[in-house]
Amino acid sequence: MAVDIIYNMKREMLRRKLSHKTINTYLLYVKKFLLANQDKSIKKFSKKDVREFLYRMEQRGVSGSTLNVAHSALRFMMIEILHKACYLKIKYAKTPVRKPEYLTKTEVSKILGVIHNKKHKLLVSLMYGAGLRVGEVTRLKVKDFSFEENIDWVRSGKGNKDRPFIIPQKIKRELKKRCNQEKLWVFLGRNGHLSIRTGQMVVRAAGKRADIKKNVHPHMFRHSFATH
Question: Does residue 58 sit in helix, strand or coil?
Answer without folding.
Answer: helix
